[in-house]
Amino acid sequence: MERPAAGQGGRSDRRGHGKKLVARDPFLDLAAFYAPRGITPDELRCMSVFDRAVLRVGRARYYEEMRLLMSAGVATAFSGEKEGG
Question: Has residue 31 been placed in a domain?
Answer without folding.
Answer: yes
